[in-house]
Specification:
Blueprint lengths: L10 H9 L7 H11 L4 E4 L6 H16 L8 E6 L3 H15 L6 E4 L5 H9 L2 E6 L1 H9 L10 E4 L2 H6 L3 H9 L6 E6 L5 H9 L4 E4 L10 E7 L5 H9 L6 E5 L3 H13 L4 E4 L5 H13 L4 E4 L12 E6 L6 H8 L9 E7 L4 H11 L5 E3 L24 H11 L3 H8 L1
Parallel strand pairs: 1-6, 1-7, 2-4, 2-5, 3-4, 5-6, 8-13, 8-14, 9-11, 9-12, 10-11, 12-13
C-alpha cells in the first residue's frame, strides 16, 4: 500500500495528512489501519520509530470524526496509555497535529505536573486522552475522570509498561472500561505476560507484525568495548571527543549514576543534560528541548528515554551500563538510525556485565563485534575456610545475578514513580 487514499480515511483527515507532508503510510500503518478502520481489535508488533503513533492515531481520529458527538462531563471518548511522561507527551503532540482544524481535543495527564490543572481540564470532558497509568489511577481515585463511556483504548509500548510494573494498574483500569470498545495494543517485544494482557484487553484481535522482536534497525553499526568499570568514563570522554558536533545519547543504569556521568562530562567540557526519575517534569522537558535544539550535544538518561522518543539527529548511542532487561538494549539503540539515517551503538561491558551481554546477543541473535578489549572470563571466587565447610565467599556469576534480581524486587514501584 503506497498511498494514504487507500486506507479508507475521511476526506478531512486525508487533507490534514497531506498538509502535514506525509507521503505514504509506513508498513505498520499500512497493515494496522485498515483493520482498525473496520472496527477490529489490533495487536501490532513493531520497533519504535516505525510510525506506530499514526497507526493507531489515524483510525482513532477517523472514527471520532465520523461518529461526531462530544464527551460528557469528566468522560473520555478515547484513551491512549503510555509508560513514560516523555512518550505520552510526544504522542499527545502528534495527535494534536493530526486533529488540527477539527473540533476534537487532545488531553495529556502525566506525573510530575500539577494535578489540579489536570483535574480542571478533565472536568469538561476529553475526546482523546493520553496518560501514564500511574497518574490516571490518581485521577480515577479522585473521581476526576470517567472511563465508562470510553469507546477506544490504545496501549502503546505495552511491553515496557509490564517491565515497569504497571500490570496491576492496567488491570484496575481495564475493570472500569466498557466491555464494548475497540482496543489496539502496540509492543516491540512479546514477553510472556503480554498474553495475559492481550486476553484481558483485546477481543479476537488481528495481529500485525513488521519486524521480528529483538531486531534492531539495519543501519545501526554496533560494537562493544570490554572495559573495567573505572575505565568507562575515560573511554566515554575519548569517544565523545571524536564527534563533538554530533548528538549522542548515553544510557546509565541508575538515576544517581546517570547524574554523576552528566556532571563528569560537563567538567570535561561537554554540553550535557540528563533525564531520569529524580528530575521534575519541567527539568526533563528543558533537558530534552536543549538536546533537540543542539544546545546540548550529549543527553545522559536512564531507560526512561529508551522508548518512543523521536530525535532524528541522534547519531551515537552509548550503553555506558548494559541494561538488566536485554530487550531494553534494542529499544535504547533504536534512538539512532531514525528515518533511514545511519547510526552507531557503542556498548561498554565490565567483567560483571558478561551475563547481560550474553543475554542481549541471544535476544538479538547476533554476536556484537568487539571494538576493544577481550571478553571477560568467569572468575572462580576463592574458597572460604573455616566453620561451615568450604563454601564460596563470592558466589558464581549466576549466583550474583540471582542476588541482583532479589535486590531489584521493588523496581516496579520505583519505575512507576519515575514515569
Amino acid at each position: 500500500m503506497k498511498d494514504f487514499n487507500e486506507l479508507g480515511l475521511p476526506k478531512a483527515l486525508l487533507a490534514r495528512v497531506a498538509e502535514m507532508g506525509l507521503k505514504q503510510p509506513t508498513p505498520i500503518q499500512a497493515q494496522a489501519v485498515p483493520h482498525a478502520m473496520a472496527g477490529r481489535d489490533v495487536m501490532g508488533l513493531a520497533q519504535t520509530g516505525t510510525g506506530k503513533t499514526f497507526a493507531f492515531g489515524l483510525p482513532l481520529v477517523a472514527a471520532m470524526q465520523r461518529d461526531g458527538g462530544r464527551p460528557g462531563k469528566r468522560a473520555v471518548r478515547g484513551l491512549v496509555l503510555a509508560p513514560t511522561r516523555e512518550l505520552a507527551k510526544q504522542i499527545a503532540e502528534s495527535l494534536r497535529a493530526l486533529v488540527k482544524g477539527s473540533p476534537l481535543k487532545v488531553g495529556l495527564v502525566v506525573g510530575g505536573a500539577g494535578i489540579v490543572g489536570q483535574i480542571n481540564r478533565l472536568e469538561r470532558g476529553t475526546d482523546l486522552l493520553v496518560a501514564t497509568p500511574g497518574r490516571l489511577i490518581d485521577l480515577l481515585d479522585r473521581n476526576a475522570v470517567r472511563l465508562d463511556a470510553t469507546d477506544f483504548l490504545v496501549l502503546d509500548e505495552a511491553d515496557q509498561m509490564l517491565d515497569m510494573g504497571f500490570i496491576h494498574s492496567l488491570r484496575k483500569i481495564a475493570a472500569l472500561l466498557p466491555n464494548e470498545r475497540q482496543t489496539m495494543l502496540f509492543s516491540a517485544t512479546m514477553p510472556k505476560l503480554m498474553a495475559e494482557l492481550a486476553q484481558s484487553y483485546l477481543s479476537d484481535p488481528v495481529r500485525v507484525q513488521v519486524s521480528p522482536p529483538g531486531k534492531a534497525a539495519d543501519k545501526i553499526d554496533q560494537v562493544v568495548h570490554f572495559v573495567e568499570k573505572p575505565g568507562k568514563l575515560d573511554l566515554l570522554i575519548e569517544l565523545l571527543d571524536t564527534h563533538r558536533d554530533e548528538r549522542a545519547l548515553v544510557f546509565g543504569r541508575t538515576k544517581h549514576g546517570s547524574e554523576k556521568i552528566k556532571r563528569q562530562l560537563e567538567k570535561a567540557g561537554f554540553a550535557a543534560e540528563s533525564i531520569h526519575g529524580n528530575k521534575s517534569q519541567g527539568q526533563r522537558d528543558r533537558a530534552l528541548t536543549a538536546f533537540k535544539s543542539g544546545e546540548a550535544r550529549v543527553l545522559v538518561a536512564t531507560d526512561v528515554a529508551a522508548r518512543g522518543l523521536d530525535i532524528p539527529e541522534v547519531r551515537h548511542v552509548y550503553n555506558f551500563d548494559l541494561p538488566n532487561v536485554p530487550d531494553n538494549y534494542v529499544h535504547r539503540i533504536g534512538r539512532t538510525a531514525r528515518a533511514g539515517a545511519d547510526g552507531a551503538a557503542i556498548a561498554f561491558c565490565a567483567p560483571d556485565e558478561m551475563g547481560e551481554l550474553k543475554a542481549i546477543q541471544k535476544v538479538m541473535g547476533i554476536s556484537i563485534p568487539v571494538a576493544s578489549g577481550e571478553p571477560w572470563e568467569p572468575v572462580e571466587p576463592p574458597k572460604r575456610q573455616g566453620r561451615g565447610g568450604g563454601k564460596p565467599a563470592g558466589g558464581t556469576p549466576s549466583g550474583n545475578r540471582q542476588r541482583r534480581r532479589r535486590r531489584r524486587g521493588g523496581a516496579g514501584k520505583a519505575a512507576q514513580k519515575a514515569a
